[in-house]
Amino acid sequence: MSERVGTRSREPEPASFPKYLSLVTGREQFVDHQKTAPLVIKGLKPEQYELCPQGLIGWYLQPNDSSNACLQDWWVFIHDIRGVSGRHRHQGGLVLFIIEGRGYSTMNGVRYDWEEGDMIIMPLLREGVEHQHFNLREDGSSKWLAFIHLPTWNEQGSELVQSALDPEFVERYGVTSWRGATTAKEKAVDNASEGGRK
After folding, report:
1. Taking the model in full, what pTM does it have?
2. According to the model, what pLDDT value does residue 198 have?
């Protein structure tokens, strides 16, 4: 009677394929993170908003902030527009959902009126979309929620160039210019009586 001998295959050394091993390990970590990371992000408190050159912004998701949320490929934030925002340019491709108030946005010089419940889909343009936002609500501010998909933003090589500063930012911090931008001089103009919305 012959004796049965078992053999065990030897696993290859990781040094033989470090890039692929890194890819596999990275995916395993990503999947584990997706299974355990927070799925609900709590509402923002007023003290969590930041006044920046574009205006008053409250961040739900911002990966540069080391968020632990399961969704890492999006910027999601509220812009609280109290009067007139700063003005900046990037290649577009984002979605704004109006959650409160009424106002309008200018995109490359064209006015687009909006109110609570509306959605703005900013086009993708190689030359960029210079835009600014205006509050027309008399009893408070207007707010919209923005969604920016980072892989799309990065693949299109989107720039971010500030061309005018939010007046409240200028007043609070005494900054009259920042990276070439100066204070926004535009004022909100309510032309609802002139024929409706675009």
Report:
1. 0.81
2. 46
